[in-house]
Amino acid sequence: METAKNLKRRNALGRGLGALLQQTEPLNETELTQVPSINSVSDIDVDTIETNPFQPRTSFDRDALNELAESIRVQGIIQPITVRQLDRDHYQLISGERRLQASKLAGLKEIPAYVRTANDQQMLEMALIENIQRENLNAMEIALSYQRLISECSLKQEELGERVGKNRATVNNYLRLLKLPPDIQAALRDNRLSMGHARAIINVENIEAQLAIFHKIIEEDLSVRAVENMVRNLAEESGQKKKKERKPLRMEYTQLQYKLSSFLSTKVTLKSNDKNQGEIRIPFVSEDDLNRILEILSLS
């Protein structure tokens, strides 16, 4: 027969992180003295961290995990994981499953982690917001703090903006930095790259191109304006390339386009895809021109 405590804990399953935190009894005073400051990052022995039972993902791409492990060997952990302390030298993962697994593959014995106690969500939110107000934070520190407020405190971007006094666009610009390759994130963290440079780079979709621009910035000490121009030129070249790669119209469609243009005395554009779906575009320059076309088509 289940005890009341076990039943209470079992009923929390499936209700996510909030339930996990609420259903856990707080540590006693002796154990609490072992918990690092909530504003600090502590190095935790990877063997003392158990996985999160509420982790929705149960499998990870092995190649991607190996790539992350190699990046960690070179750059270290850029974004600390988050754990909560169950008792002395015993932790449970809250977020960062991939980073934890990749760190083990990389041979790390310890991993930087934010350590939380049970039932401290409000305390965490206040501490993070207070931390964000500091003037000496770099762009990555701000981005990571914003992400923690969203993921761990269940804030929406609008709510986050209100909490930190920023509009949604500014918050989103920082969050987008977390999608950049690790090398670029590390440069932001180490103040070798500015927020302006990163905002320009992130508009490039291809990761290899992002890294190529990044290395050029470092090697040639490019200004933000120069990088913005480079990105703009790449976008134009890409657009022209896609335009050239468009499949030409079938011969019968080209002939039909020519006949329609001649018949209506205006340039008619016909587009078609591989499924023979498309559109016919007939431009007009004035209301009189439109009426002329409609009259030819016997629609007026």
Automatic annotation (TrEMBL):
InterPro entries reported in the protein's UniProt record: Chromosome_partition/occlusion, HTH_ParB/Spo0J, ParB/RepB/Spo0J, ParB/Sulfiredoxin_sf, ParB_dimer_C, ParB_N
Pfam family, one: HTH_ParB
Residues covered by the ParB-like N-terminal domain: 42-132
SUPFAM superfamilies: KorB DNA-binding domain-like, ParB/Sulfiredoxin
GO cellular component term of the entry, any: chromosome
PANTHER family in the record: CHROMOSOME-PARTITIONING PROTEIN PARB-RELATED
Family in the record: Belongs to the ParB family.
Protein's name in the database: ParB/RepB/Spo0J family partition protein
Organism: Xanthocytophaga agilis
